[in-house]
Amino acid sequence: MLDTLDAAAVRRWCASGLAAMRRHQGEIDDLNVYPVPDGDTGTNLVLTLTSAQQALAMDLDTLPEDGHTPHGHALRLMARGALLGARGNSGVILSQILRGFADALAATPAVRGRQLAAALADAATAAYGAVARPVEGTLLSVVAAAARAADQADSDDLRVVARAAAGGAARALARTTEQLPALARAGVVDAGGRGLCVLLDALVEVITGESPQQPAPAPPTVRPPATAVRETGSPEYAYEVQFLLEAGAEAVARLRAELDALGDSLVIVGDGGDGGGTWNVHVHVNDVGGAIEAGVVAGRPHRISVTRFADQVAPAPPPPTLRPDGRAAVVVAAGAGIAELFGAEGATVVPGNPSTGELLDAIRATGAARVVVLPNDPNTQSVASAAAKEAHRLGVKVSVVPTRSPVQALAALAVRDPGRRFEDDVIAMAEAAGACRYAEVCHASREALTVAGPCRPGDVLALVEGEVHLIGADLLDTCTAVVDRMLGGGGELVTLLCGADAPAGLADRVREHVARAWPFVEVQAYEGGQPHYPLLLGVE
């Protein structure tokens, strides 16, 4: 049990939180408000925390600066890694929670109960500040409740306050279905809030030493591919960890068993006998933090090096020199056909569901001093805003046009004019995107109660501006019905993007229907290749 939160505890919290999030990843992914097959909050939180842990693992030898304590420095590294790896709204908000937490404790000599409560209050403030229009019944409500419960505990005992915070978060999570009608209709609690509860439970475990009574089984995870040629071992492990270790033979024997369970290509050689000595440790793993922590438990590791195989294929080229008068557009695209359309418009394309760091890299790679970003997904808008803030620090002016669908981005790119002032051009693009109404057609992935009535798995759903408007049994009939509904409000141009799973001839059948029912409306159809949605459509 801990009386104060030190740097080693911060590292254990990050590692334990990531492991717990992986165990609950599938459960959190399934907490999806809409019955569409792309709920990924759990995956986004895992990727965000993975980046946080990697930031900690890569900077073990970095000394604190600017008067920060060792635990404050570790928290800053964790928050920075989470920010650059943040994916989705939940990932961005979590990174801001960690930033507020780190800022509050950066120079605090000792972290006890009241200091933890104050840090949670700052974390809640930072989370609310990251959202333009805060909504209760979400991750925000859960972190605010955790902070209030911690404050009401009114104790210097770190364990008492940590337990109070986790308990307050759990109670707030249960109330999210009462606060947000969409959650009540779907019969689920907020996914991001559930993820925060998992992370706070991990903090309680680190502080108190009490493990959960019934840990959830770990779902299968997809490991990132390692593209470099390595000397030995399976390609399923992405990192090489090496360090020198001062330890006894018995401790090394235990370390050997632990590292063998974590990865492969394990080699431990040294001059130590029963009394101790120096050992050279080498292993390939995915869990970098776990491998290093095992070394810390065994003895005193030093000269630690971590190599990511994917980074060894070829050194990344330096970012191009910034062009003061240069302009560029960065667009997020899920689907090969959509990416090709945006590329033809001269835009830099980033694959769907990017992290903050990936968007920032794309912005920098343009070499332009003025960049417009089109996120094309409500869940990516906060990631784009975070990347824009980071780019501003590098001297790049970035404006985010809040496109919620690729059809809106196509409308925005069509009116770009390099002859206009950048600010005026951004306004024109935003107006064009806003004038394009959008819809999505997909198959229901589960039973749910929507504003259009109940649906069952396999039903065809038509969502207009993100809300379910139609529920049907036939894909073509539902597609033509939603086109009619949208054109009933006016329109001169219909844009169709057919998905990867769209049946052959779907666009032609919809085009024929529009020609009969709406003879003065133009139709443009493209193979988008997007997953999950057989048809995306826009009306201008």
Automatic annotation (TrEMBL):
Transmembrane segments: none annotated. InterPro entries: DegV_domain_contain, DhaL_dom, DhaL_dom_sf, FakA-like_C, FakA-like_M, YloV-like. Residues 8-205 form the DhaL domain. Gene3D superfamilies: 1.25.40.340. It holds the Pfam family Dak2. NCBIfam families: YloV (TIGR03599). This is DAK2 domain-containing protein. It comes from Micromonospora sicca.
